Automatic annotation (TrEMBL):
Top enzyme category: transferase
GO biological process: glutathione metabolic process
Taxonomic source organism: Linum tenue
UniProt cross-references to InterPro entries, sorted A to Z: Glutathione-S-Trfase_C_sf (IPR036282), Glutathione_S-Trfase (IPR040079), Glutathione_S-Trfase_N (IPR004045), GST_C_Tau (IPR045074), Omega/Tau-like (IPR045073), Thioredoxin-like_sf (IPR036249)
All copies of domain GST N-terminal, residue ranges: 4-84
CDD domains: GST_C_Tau, GST_N_Tau
Coiled coil location: none
Predominant cellular place of this UniProt entry's protein: cytoplasm
Keywords from the UniProt entry: Cytoplasm, Transferase
Name by which UniProt lists this protein: Glutathione S-transferase
Record localization: Cytoplasm, Cytosol
Length: 177
């Protein structure tokens, strides 16, 4: 009998972990976050749960590990069907997976969950790359704003300024000027 014990081996700044956390929040599920030290020493649980890539996120459902964020989000959608993240027919699902512009055209779902966490790193890219996403890609920028209006997204995505500080520290750690 499933206890639905949900654990995510996590790194707060990882867009891939954010995907899983948004999907869980969309389904209204409680879960435990276990922070991994990706640079100082990964836990034995991470190494044994994801021996191929040794990366977060790992999602543990009643102790059973799943790896790769898109695989995990699909699993979450299949295991807890409501509200559906993917459309109901195989053809629509294939479109959702394939077309990037699905983001602009459909209700919030699978593609948005996979894409939005990456945007939390945009501010850091802008500062180091000397460009503005809003100026270069206004439609993308509008989509980010729409997604961020959702509580399930806003509560998971960290402040981009914190990500920027994290990147500054990473650059120092790896000796990048
Ligand atoms: N394709 C993977 C990417 C996961 C990934 O790159 N995780 C990074 C953190 S953002 C990680 O664990 N890095 C540690 C390492 O590479 O050793 C997914 O979608 O889950």
């Amino acid at each position: 009998m499933s206890k639905n014990e949900l654990v995510i081996l996590d790194c707060w700044a990882s867009p891939f972990c954010m995907r899983v956390k948004i999907a869980l929040a969309e389904k209204g599920l409680d879960y435990e976050e276990r922070a991994e030290d990706l640079f100082g020493g990964k836990s034995d649980l991470l190494l044994t749960s994801n021996p191929i890539y040794k990366k977060v996120p790992v999602f543990l459902h009643d102790g059973k590990p799943l790896c790769e964020s898109s695989v995990i989000v699909s699993y979450i959608d299949e295991t807890w069907p409501a509200p559906a993240l993917l459309p109901s027919t195989p053809y629509e699902r294939s479109q959702a997976r394939f077309w990037a512009d699905y983001i602009d055209k459909k209700a919030f779902g699978y593609v948005d969950i996979l894409a939005i966490p990456i945007t939390s790193w945009f501010l850091a890219s802008e500062k180091f790359g000397n460009f503005k996403v809003e100026a270069e890609c206004p439609k993308l920028s509008a989509w980010i704003k729409r997604c961020m209006e959702k509580e399930t997204v806003a509560k998971v995505i960290p402040d981009p300024e914190k990500i920027y500080e994290f990147v500054v520290n990473l650059r120092k750690m790896f000796g990048i000027a």
